[in-house]
Amino acid sequence: ILDDPDLKDIDPTVLKHCHAAAATCILEAGKLKADIPAISTCLEDCKLDKERIEQFCTEYQKNKDALEVLLGSIGRSPLHITDVSWRLEYQIKNNQLHKTYQPSYLVTLNVENSDSGSHPDVSFSCTMEQLQDLVGKLKDAAKSLERATQM
Predict the structure, then answer these.
(1) What sequence ranges are listed for the domain COMM (predicted)?
(2) How many CB atoms lie within 10 A of CB 47?
(3) What Cα–Cα distance (Å) separates residue 79 from each residue in 73, 83, 118, 122?
(4) Cβ contact 100:92 at 8 Å
(5) Could you tell me how many helices (H) and strands (E) the chain has, helices first?
(6) pLDDT tens for residues 5-57?
(7) Most buried among 30, 45, 52, 63, by the most CB within 10 A?
(8) So what's the pLDDT on residue 97?
(9) Would you call 22 exposed, middle or buried from its count of C-beta atoms within 10 A (0-12, 13-18, 19+)?
(10) In terms of C-beta density within 10 A (0-12 exposed, 13-18 middle, 19 or more buried), how is residue 147 classed?
(11) At a CB cut-off of 8 Å and minimum separation 6, what does 32 contact?
């Protein structure tokens, strides 16, 4: 979009804001399965002229089915961790053949989404300090959830 010669005189920041606003409008319309009259009314409230509204609605209508398929593939609920596995790994040398002897943990989270079943596992590597920090944050989250359910 920034390379389009018709838009070269527009401030790039303004152009990015306009792009974000248009994307948000399209996504919300798709999410709500809004019809053309509802979209037109919304855009009229935003002070767009009739010609631009008609052009927007025509393009939206052409791509509506593909948008709904794309939004449907995203899912509606967050991933759920079903299992975790880990292993200790020692890095003995680095790329320059210097001895390092750095231990790290390889953690794999088995996840699933209630909308579409299983997903690829989430894997990451961390140091002992990072793993301790993660465990501490998970304990804090569990305590907060426990307190919230007791109310």
Answers:
(1) 80-149
(2) 6
(3) 14, 12, 9, 10
(4) yes
(5) 4, 4
(6) 888 888 888 888 888 888 888 888 888 888 999 999 988 998 889 999 999 99
(7) 30
(8) 66
(9) exposed
(10) exposed
(11) none
> Is residue 130 predicted with pLDDT exceeding 90?
yes
The tokens describing 34, both together, are: 């809004």
Longest CA–CA span in the chain (Å) reads 69
Banded pLDDT at 112 (limits 50, 70, 90): confident
Per the prediction, the chain carries an average pLDDT of 84
Calpha distance 139→132 (Å, rounded): 11
Nearest to 82 by CA among 132, 115, 117, 106: 117
Residues 120-129: pLDDT tens digits?
Answer: 788 999 988 9
- Tokens 């053309």 correspond to 36
> Which residues, including other chains, have CB under 8 Å from residue 67's CB and lie 6 or more apart?
26, 30, 60
Mean pLDDT confidence for 82-111: 81
